[in-house]
Amino acid sequence: MSWFKRTSAGIKTQRSQQNDIPEGQWVKCQGCSETITRRELERQLLVCSRCDYHFKMSPTGYFNLLFDGEYELFDENIISSDPLQFTDQKSYKDRLEATRKKTGLQDAAKAAVGEVGGYPISVSAMDFTFIGGSMGSVVGEIVARSIKRAYEKKIPALVITQSGGARMMEGALSLMQMAKTSAHLTKLSEAGLPFFVLLTNPTTGGVTASFAMLGDIHLAEPGALIGFAGPRVIRETMGQDLPEGFQTSEFLLEKGYIDRIVDRRKLKGELAHLLALFLSK
After folding, report:
1. Under a CB-based contact definition with an 8 Å cutoff, are residues 90 and 123 in contact?
2. Most confident option among 30-34, 230-234, 271-275
3. Which pLDDT score, from 0 to 100, does residue 25 have?
4. Domain map of the chain by residue range?
């Protein structure tokens, strides 16, 4: 039964001759479990070429994808404070500093102005890697300023959502961002300017309960999780089982909550087409 034992007579490969794969060079798709090279994934705009699963994309990634060329960034130096002196296992201030160092971001949102298909537009985008894309005072301020910039410049606005909801470490201050962003959207509407929303995976909590569902046109990426509370909370509250996939973008499209599901690789063309419809005379 010696074939069940490892012997020293086997062929060995010297360490210097082994194919060392750099960390992060290969990525396992969460949709189909296939292994993809990072280079191929980036070439496909972080969309799996086998099953079309959409990986999360950063705000900078969306800006580079959507804008025709150069764009101008705004509100890069706004940072959160710790007004409530929130302390759990470690202070909120320490967590913010650690997250900034890890991600290279100031907070969970970025804003820019540029042209898409030749039409100027003010865009803000959220980033899930910064404390789950949670909406605190800074995120709410960046989104609100982006919308304000739109009606002051008399251009459309787009918000790309990707969030776990309100930031609990800022308490009521984070909830106030829901009202603030919605108030600016009222002014945008009064100016007769369109507001577009792109819902990405995930979009939940206070973000869904405010500006994410106040668009003139709601687009969503395939398979995105979109909802307010989680499935378990809803199930326990209602006391009954829920339909399969009831919080996916496909289900919400069927029920009329969103207008269109758009593959990221076709997103720029879709947005340019909508801008032409809304703005061309």
Report:
1. no
2. 271-275
3. 87
4. 23-55, 56-279
Classify domain 56-279 at the CATH superfamily level: 2-enoyl-CoA Hydratase; Chain A, domain 1 (3.90.226.10)
Long-range contacts of 69-72 (CB under 8 A, 24+ apart): 69/114, 69/115, 70/114, 71/112, 71/113, 71/114, 71/115, 72/112, 72/113, 72/114
Task: Produce one character per residue of 222-248: b if its CB has 16 or more CB atoms within 10 Å, e if not.
Answer: bbbbbbbbbeeeeeeeeeeeeeeeebb
Burial class (CB in 10 A: 0-12, 13-18, 19+), 3: exposed
* Planar angle of CA 208, 199, 211, nearest 5 degrees: 40
Share of the chain above pLDDT 70, in %: 90
* The pLDDT of residue 22 is above 70: no
Q: Which amino acid is it at 4?
A: F
pLDDT digits (tens, 9 = 90+) for 77-117: 999 988 888 776 678 999 999 999 999 999 999 999 999 99
